Amino acid sequence: MSKNLVIVESPAKAKTIEKFLGKDFKVKSSYGHIRDLKKKDFSIDIEHDFAPIYEIPADKKELVADLKNEASKAEMVWLASDEDREGEAIAWHLYEVLGLKPETTKRIVFHEITKNAILKAIDNPRDININLVDAQQARRVLDRIVGFELSPVLWKKVKPALSAGRVQSVAVRLIVEREREINNFKSEAAYRVVALFTTTDDKGKRVELRSELNTRFKTKDEALSFLEKCKDSTFSIESVTKRPLKKSPAAPFTTSTLQQEAARKLGYSVSQTMMISQRLYESGLITYMRTDSVNLSSLALNAAKEEIEKTMGEEYVKTRNYHTKSKGAQEAHEAIRPTYLSNQQIEGSAQEKRLYELIWKRTIASQMSDAVLEKTTIEIAVSNQKEKFVTVGEVIKFDGFLKVYIESTDDDEKSEGDSKLLPPLTTGTTLELNQATATERFTQRPARYSEASLVRKMEELGIGRPSTYAPTISTIQNREYVEKGDKEGQERTYNVITLKDNNISQTTQTEITGADKGKLIPTDIGTIVNDFLTEHFPNIMDYNFTANVEQEFDHVAEGMQIWTKAIDSFYKMFHPDVVNTLALRTETRVGERILGTDPKTGRQVSVKISRFGPVVQIGKQDEEEKPLFASLLKGHSMSTITLEEALKLFELPRQVGEYEGKVVTIGVGRFGPYVRHDSKYVSLPKEFEPMTVTLDESIALIEAKRKQESERLIKTFEQNEALQILNGRFGPYITLDKNNYKIPKGTDPKALTYEECMEIIKTADENPKPVRGRKTAAKSAASSKTKASAKAKSEEKEKKSTAKKTTTAKKSTAKKTKQE
Predict the structure, then answer these.
(1) What is the DSSP letter of 370?
(2) Are 138 and 145 in contact (CB under 8 A)?
(3) Distance CA 399, CA 371 (A)
(4) Burial of 745 by CB count in 10 Å (0-12 exposed, 13-18 middle, 19+ buried)?
(5) Does residue 227 carry a pLDDT above 50?
(6) Strand pairing partners for 489?
(7) CB 3.0 to 4.6 Å from 109: which of 83, 583, 639, 712, for a disulfide?
(8) Which class for 148: exposed (0-12), middle (13-18), buried (19 or more C-beta within 10 A)?
(9) Is there a cis peptide before residue 770, judged by omega within 30 degrees of 0?
(10) Residue 772, SS3?
(11) What percent of the chain has pLDDT above 90?
(12) Where are the alpha helices (DSSP H) in 479-604?
């Protein structure tokens, strides 16, 4: 029996730590939190200082019993969850639920999983930091209050099944406001003049020099006038200026800078970066990955120095101590770095190797010498004009940290004016003009947020903390308030005026502008929810307010504030807004936009959010004739759709012809555009437009669906038609009464008999295990129970609603009232 029980929050972490400890230690995993607020209940006791009401989830009860048993047998229990607030709360919940005692319990923390770090932590245990626990509880309670009180407001005023969150709503606001800036942006044109000169350098060699005018002309006439004057001008070098320039390396990675750089250099999403870095940390390869500190330990500084001297030389070493700029640095106390800087490469998946290499290079570069450059600026005078041509070039004299790493930015596309190597020239040298081109250029609209740039903006505003960036961005996409997608650009013409051989020519060329790939775009429902919350809950949606709340959590973590007082202050401000907003009555539905009048019927045409998404409506609810509805197509937006585009939607469903004696119809339903034939539906792929798809294209889609379905069915049985063997995403499986069962490896699905299938089902039901991507019988039973409960509640609600309506109808004699 082991004398010591170590509890961590993940099995991967447990496996790594167990290698470093002797036989007297047993390492177990809690698999995250072992208890939490109840999922479907408010679980906050407002009347008793906002006391959270915790429960142990059903799927954790067996684990808790096992941990209790192991703890009772151990002489000492070591709580070794992560060192941030979430980790501290996990340790506290373990202490409370397992009934541990102070004299036989120790809390240990470490920011890297190495033998030295683990043994050092055991030599230096501490108590659970209740301030950190309270800070985590404060965040959890506040977010539960906001979610549970705001969501019903959205259900009633906007659309059922919506939800709202404190940090998520503000993140959506950033994206909505940026989209509006883009839509309202008016591009302004100007003419950029670039000239190509030739001359002889100081060694008598003919060289070319490309230079840009230091002025941009607002009109075509101004540009033409300048080029006309250039015909008779002489050009000479007025000045050559050289000055030394130094570039310093970026600080080691924090959570947000790692997320940003991994997106730019590797194309990883924010959540992908966190998942991969979690694996690297739990394998003992990097330090803790949720941190806003740029500090490196003295051990890491010495290791970096040794590695640089060994691989590149002493002249490349420059030890640097970085300091965290963030006021509320709340997580680990060191930047993200490799645990062993001597390991340039690791074993692992391709993704893990690439992210590790990025972290290694950034860490090493941060401790390297500055890059030394020489910047040269050449000014070229035009004899009869005040404007000057300017050329800038850079030469690297000593590469320093650039030998290893160059930091990326969100604007990494190279411009035509980028620095370059210049020929050796002297003041007074006469230049010969080969060609001058005035190109019409346009001011650039604001860029849409990528996941990386949104993280940077949130950090800049103080919204959220290292542990919340990735979940926030995932949540707003999962709730379909924001989508990561592509935007097609629009074709634009521009003028090019060229002076060559003393002749001026003009051409018109085209380019695509406004195209975006993989950027965050607000959906219609996201925009409407944002506008509603901004109007009725301005405090919740205020950037400064959200940042101040984060600072209050920091104060709680530092022991400077009592968490319940912070929550009480917030609730007294927030709850009255909820009550007042629920009581509001509006004539139009939230987000409804009137487009105009239908010329055929004279009825009002509007666009609004329905139960199944954005729709165009012809008519009003209170008219005798029922309103007509049409779903918006992909690419349409409630804020920009025109009356003409809206009316065109009512041409759907449309018949495109007949196939096999049955009509083929194109329409748009709850799940998007479709082809309907013989009472069967085929989804219309993205590349097809519902308004233009042809009969031949529709037939091809129908046949493809038939082929897919025929290949899906492997076998049926006469004894029970509901029993089938099907081909699924993860291979063949058995299905019966909407329950799916995994077929054992090595079994030929075509050879299975009815009796063998029933035996597999019986075994699975007796030993239920979740099957990836499929619903098991046990899950299905639980799901059915939940659905039955939900149905009962819904029926009860419907009865109450009907009774209420009947009472209202009896009381009202003037007119019938319709509840929105």
Answers:
(1) P
(2) no
(3) 5
(4) exposed
(5) yes
(6) none
(7) 83
(8) middle
(9) no
(10) coil
(11) 67
(12) 524-536, 543-557, 563-583
Q: What is the mean pLDDT of the chain?
A: 88
Q: What angle do CA 260, 11, 108 make, to 5 degrees?
A: 80
Stretch 84-100: mean pLDDT: 95
With beta carbons less than 8 A apart as the criterion, state whether 690 and 666 touch: yes
Label each residue of 467-511 as H, E or C.
CCHHHHHHHHHHCCCEEEEEECCEEEEEEEEEEECCEEEEEEEEE
Residue 545 tokens read as 């307010």
Cα–Cα distances in Å, from 510 out to 218, 413, 441, 513?
Answer: 19, 20, 12, 10
Contact 334, 297 (CB under 8 A): yes
Q: Token pair of 430, please? A: 């006469």
Answer whether residue 819 shows pLDDT above 70.
Answer: no
Give the Å distances, CA to CA, from 784 to 738, 763, 770. 11, 21, 16
672 closest CA partner among 680, 681, 684: 684
Structure tokens at 499: 């002076």
Q: Taking Cα atoms as reference points, which of 83, 86, 131, 85 lies closest to residue 107?
A: 83
Per-residue pLDDT, 637: 86
Query: Looking at the annotation, which residues are catalytic?
Result: 288
For residue 126, give the DSSP letter: B
pLDDT tens digits along 740-790: 999 998 899 999 999 999 999 998 888 765 433 334 444 444 444 444 444
How far is residue 430's CA from residue 686's CA, in Å, rounded to a whole number?
59
Question: What are the Cα distances from residue 749, in Å, to 525, 731, 736, 762?
Answer: 45, 10, 15, 17
- Please report, as a single letter, which amino acid is at residue 399: D
CA atoms of 683 and 690, how far apart (whole Å): 11
What is the rounded CA–CA span in Å between residue 795 and residue 129? 48
Per-residue 3-state assignment (H helix, E strand, C coil) for 127-188: CCCHHHHHHHHHHHHHHHHHHHHHHHHHHHHCCCCCCCCHHHHHHHHHHHHHHHHHHHCCCC
Of the two residues 325 and 289, the one the predictor is more confident about is: 289
Residue 431 to residue 197: CA distance in whole angstroms: 6
Distance CA 238, CA 222 (A): 24
**CB of 658 within 8 A of CB of 664?**
yes
DSSP-H helix ranges across 196-329: 220-230, 255-266, 270-282, 298-311
Reply yes or no on whether the pLDDT at 253 is more than 70.
Answer: yes
Cβ neighbours, 10 Å, residue 163: 17
Long-range CB contacts for residues 602-607, cutoff 8 Å, separation at least 24 = 605/643, 605/646, 605/647, 607/632, 607/638, 607/641, 607/646
Contact 262, 335 (CB under 8 A): no
The string of pLDDT tens digits covering residues 453-493 is 999 999 999 888 888 899 999 999 999 999 998 888 889 99
* Mean pLDDT score, 168-175: 95
Do residues 531 and 175 make contact, with C-beta atoms less than 8 angstroms apart?
A: no
User: Which one-letter DSSP state was computed for residue 195?
Assistant: E
Q: What digits encode the pLDDT tens for the residues 594-614?
A: 999 999 899 999 998 888 788
Backbone angles phi, psi at 46, to 5 degrees: -60, -40
From 108, 89, 88, select the one nearest 25 (Cα to Cα). 108
Q: Strand 4-8 to strand 25-29: parallel, antiparallel, or no bridges (unpaired)? A: parallel
